[in-house]
Amino acid sequence: MTRSDTLQNVNRIALSTADVSSSLRHALQLVEATMRAAVDSDVTTLRDASHHILEAGGKRIRPRLVLLSYAAVGGADMREAANVAAAIELMHTASVVHDDINDHGIVRRGRPSVNAIWGRTFALLTGDYLFTKVYELMAPYGDLNIALAEAAVALVEGETLQASAVKENRFTREVYLDIIGRKTAALFRASGSMGALLAGADRETSETLGAFGYNIGLAFQIVDDILDLTSDTDKIGKTAGIDLAQGKGYAAVERDGDLISAAVGNNSADPMAKIKAKVMQGNYVNEGREQAQMLMHAAIAHLDILPDSDARDELIALARSVVEREF
Amino acid sequence: MTRSDTLQNVNRIALSTADVSSSLRHALQLVEATMRAAVDSDVTTLRDASHHILEAGGKRIRPRLVLLSYAAVGGADMREAANVAAAIELMHTASVVHDDINDHGIVRRGRPSVNAIWGRTFALLTGDYLFTKVYELMAPYGDLNIALAEAAVALVEGETLQASAVKENRFTREVYLDIIGRKTAALFRASGSMGALLAGADRETSETLGAFGYNIGLAFQIVDDILDLTSDTDKIGKTAGIDLAQGKGYAAVERDGDLISAAVGNNSADPMAKIKAKVMQGNYVNEGREQAQMLMHAAIAHLDILPDSDARDELIALARSVVEREF
């Protein structure tokens, strides 16, 4: 398929260069307002806990991916995609709140986690609540629900595979890729494909933007796992080292049949320090960064089918920022 | 509105008397098969834990309510409503799995609870998984999603209000009714109204079946709370006395400004025995049963707008069984 073929699939005029960054900014503000309004329950604990985690901000990569995918295939008004972008970010937020329960995470987005403030019971219910709000926001969007439901299932499956792999001490490279494909990349795929579908793109175009999203999702998670290891809690805004301490994440992956966490052992005086030292000695961090780079280039190559536009450039910039970020 | 008006709203011929109970049985079998197939994940823990809780059975009141509401307004083939009935039962099951985490319940439907076998982390993920499967099953059903999403939100809000009321020791009658309206009756309402909508009923008819469901949902929960108090674990298939022990449920409701749990105190040698004794002395159980009876009659009165049919009789029988059950 050539670019000129695809041009015919783009059913509206792409936004002009000057407009995109300001449109994106406005649409993201609408996404924030939509999320806040969605969780404005009369049940004060749900409202307060939801606002707490939403107001902590976050990178909003998934909403950006929805909005830019929409614009890159010719969508005329990014605000049309704001509800769906909000739903996707709420789904991610729900999973984050539940993760922090299971991982005993006490810092999230630079704030105390929901479970740290409200306790496990209310954190569980807040995560459930955010998920029901995804469902409610998405109700008018017909077929898009199939794509997002699939991502939701994958997300929970990925988290479960991860918990099983840690428990059974079989964190191989293959298992790691299966896990991050489901728990992270599936929602990135849905973001890209749903943005495109909302703008009226055909199936091939929307799947291509889904593939773009999937690849940057994988890259994002690898970088996230590296940052968990190399950065500190202040900088990344969540409990650093938590993945490795729990025998998961990129650095915990088995290499040459040697599970790092098993090799170091869990009952040494300071297992974390020893694991970190061992990981830093090896080539793990550079290797991970290289894989993420590779995935980023693969992602960007998918965009060849799109016409030139400022939105397309912004998608490329988004892919780069995912890999090059330091937090 | 008279019955003959409503007859015109019923767009298909109601099932004949002889057919209904056999159709119901077959449709319920399809609901079971649909639920089992939906949770057939390649992630073994999710599959095993989901099958464990589904195979434990349960009363399947909500699916019955969907199927009978469908038939009572003239739906021709109950199997048409099986996917939606399965989705509603999965949503209820998801909430049950999460409840058992928060309440430390170890018996459910006569089996060890999911958290008792797989632990809290996997129980949390299994509940999430079941909910994502609701979302997936419902994706093709357009507008019905609005009704079910509303019920899902209410369910989580009700659970949260309950946890807050217990924590803050303000379990008044008003709070109790607000809680059970959301955590139980909202899903019963969705069951009735969605069954009717699937059969092509108009809005008034579907809302009436929703109101029928809402009332029997309230009655169901009051009876459930009484059984928690008066029955034993073997009979009701879940940890008996757990609600009262946790300061919630019907018997924990404040009367004459006197919170029972507060009056007895939590630090006596066997607080449960003392609370039970105090509750049994009073008129609490009879009073609750009377309220449930009243709600049942109110529910049945809603059915006046429907034409006579075996399905309508079955709905009445369902309402009675909810109140008269001993487990």
Query: What is the CATH class designation of chain A?
Result: Mainly Alpha
Q: How much beta of chain A, percentage-wise?
A: under 5%
Supply Rg of chain A: 20 Å
Q: What is the percent of helical residues of chain A? A: over 70%
Explain how this protein is built.
Two copies of one chain form a homodimer. Chain A has 327 residues and is an all-alpha fold. Chain A has one domain: Farnesyl Diphosphate Synthase, CATH 1.10.600. Chain A is built from 15 helices and two strands. A two-stranded antiparallel ribbon of chain A has the order 1-2. In chain A, a hairpin with a 2-residue loop joins strand 1 (107-108) and strand 2 (111-112). In chain A, helix 2 (17-38) crosses helix 5 and helix 4 (61-72) packs antiparallel against helix 15. The model of chain A is unreliable at 1-15 and 257-268 (pLDDT under 50). At the A-B interface, helix 3, helix 5, helix 6 and helix 7 of A face helix 3, helix 5, helix 6 and helix 7 of B.
Please describe the structure with a list of short key phrases separated by commas or semicolons.
Farnesyl Diphosphate Synthase, 15 helices, mainly alpha, 327 residues, homodimer, disordered N terminus, two-stranded antiparallel ribbon, 72% helix
Overview in brief:
The structure is a homodimer of 327-residue chains. By secondary structure, chain A is mainly alpha-helical.
Topology:
2 copies of one chain form a homodimer.
Chain A: H1 3-9, H2 17-38, H3 44-55, H4 61-72, H5 82-102, E1 107-108, E2 111-112, H6 114-138, H7 144-168, H8 173-198, H9 203-230, H10 233-236, H11 242-245, H12 260-264, H13 271-281, H14 284-302, H15 310-324
Antiparallel strand pairs in A: 1-2
